[in-house]
Amino acid sequence: MRFNTPIQIALFLSSLLFLIAGVLFYLTAATSHFFLSLILFFFFSVIVIYNIVKRMLHEKIKVIYKNIYKVKGTPKVTELDIENAAKKVEDWAEEKENEILAMKESENYRREFIGNVSHELKTPIFNIQGYVQTLLDGGLNDNEVNEKYLIRTNKSVDRMINIVEDLETITRLETEKSELDIRKVNIKSLVNDVFELLEMKAGSLDVKLSIKNESNSEFVLCDQDKIQQVFVNLISNSIKYGKKGGYTEVRFYDMNDKLLIEIADNGIGINQEHLPRLFERFYRVDKNRSRKIGGTGLGLAIVKHIIEAHNQTINVRSTTNKGSTFSFILEKAKPN
What we know:
This protein has helices at 6-28, 32-72, 85-136, 143-175, 187-197, 199-204, 224-240, 287-292, 299-309; strands spanning 182-186, 208-214, 219-223, 247-255, 258-265, 315-319, 323-332. By secondary structure, it is α+β, with helices and mostly antiparallel strands. A hairpin with a 3-residue loop joins strand 6 and strand 7.
C-alpha cells in the first residue's frame, strides 16, 4: 500500500503510536480514563502529524511535481507519488541535462559549419578578386595574361558553384521529407554507367575500375538517381585518394533478401582517428591535399543522407596505406 497523501501518512503514524500506547495500557493495567485519553491522543496526533506533513513536506514536494509536469506539458498532477518522487526528479534533471548538452552540441556544430562554409568560399572568392585585380591593373591588354587569368577565374567560379550546389543538395536531403522514387534497378548496369562517367579520371591516375559480383541477383529497389550519386561520390573519392597503378573495385554479396555493396580500393587509406567524423559536412582528413585535388568536402555527407533515406547505414573500414572499403545495403527486387 502506498501512502501518497498527508492524511494517509498521518493515520499510519498515529496508528503506530496508538498501538504502542495500547500495549503500555495493557501492561500497566491502566484505568478506563487512560483509554479515553488514548483515544483523544490518537485523534490529536492525527491532526498534528497531518498538518506537519502537509505544510513541511507534502506541499513542497507537490510544488516540485507541478513544476516538472508543467515543463513536460502535463496540465495537472492527479496523484502525488512520494515513493517515486526522488527518482522522478532525478530522471527529469537528467532529461534537462541531456537537452542542454544537445543544445550546446548543436550550437557548436552550427558555429563550426558556418566557419567551414566561410573558409571554403573564401579561397575561390579571394582568387577571383586577385585575378580580376590583375586584369584591371593592365593584364587585360596582354592576350597571354588575360586568357590565363580568365581561365583561372572560371575555375574558381566553378568551385563556388559546386559548393553552393552541394549545400543545396544536402539541405534538401535534410529538410525535405519527399518520398524517394523507389524502383527496380539493375545495380551492375548502374555501376558500369558510373565507370564510364569516371573512366577518363581513373585513366589519368592509372586506377583500374572493376566489378566483383558474388550475388545471385543484380536487381535492387532504390532511387536510381540518388544511388547513382552515391556511387559517383564514393568511386570518385576512391580514384582521387588511390595509388597510381591501384584499383577501385565494386563488390556485390548476397545477404538473404538484401544486397551488400562494397566500394573498395588499395589507396592511401584513412587513419582510425578520423573515421568517426568522416561523414560530417566539410570534414577533411588532409585539408591541404583535399583542396589541392578538388572537391567540396560535402560528398560523404551527401552519401550518408541518401543511404539513410533508404533506411540503411553507410559504413567504412580503412587502414593507412592499405586502402579503404565503404559499404551499405540495399533491398533486393523480387523476381518477376
